[in-house]
Amino acid sequence: MMTEIQTEGEFEYIESGEGELVILLHGLMGALSNFKETIQSLNENGYKVVIPLLPVYTLPLLRTSAKGIARFFEKFVEHKGYSDMTLLGNSLGGHVGLIYTRENPDKVKRLVLTGSSGLYENSMGDTFPRREDYDFIKRKTEEVFYDPSIATKELVDEIFETVNSRDRVLRVIALAKSAIRHNMSKDLPKFTLPTCLIWGKQDVVTPPEVAEEFHSLIPNSELFWIDKCGHAAMMERPTDFNKTLITWLKKTPIS
Fold it and tell me: Which pLDDT score is estimated for 251?
């Protein structure tokens, strides 16, 4: 279930369903379609879902950073007047959610991180000089998943097109480097909100030890593993991911 993208000024987003608000934040190389089955599951269980299109390729280069994306998201939330939110972020989207929550703790009631940056990650950044090598991009895309068949030709083509745009690749590298530089280990012990960590056991981008460190640093966190799964659990193992997510949301009501 995917609804049409709505546009309001500089903001583009998907909005679906009714109920408690869950905002989904996509990653650096992610797309709104990555959350297709999660949107449907949340809607069926009585949650309103919003997915803003984050300007990973369109911010001015000097403002292209994890903090810059978080500031854009803050403007979006203010524009929409949202509060009492649950934020769910994958990869860079998790990092953006963490930065936003640190700056706006009164607006966020629950946090869900899956394959989040913010502590440590492996990235493709230093290998982009080989961006014209399709087979190389295909192999690097497959490494994101435990099951390489998830990296369909359509997905590989999309990433290949992205990394062969000079403007886009400069922003990808800038964002990847800023995510690595912006380590949040000193901030995380101050997070008091309920936090759900859903991690692929075979994630090679943000490996299992990253999930363990998040769990040890965030006081009110729970960690759930999905086996035979890489960096994008909501794409690779959507049934397991959505079951874990909905169960946690229902047992962790907004106070």
Answer: 97
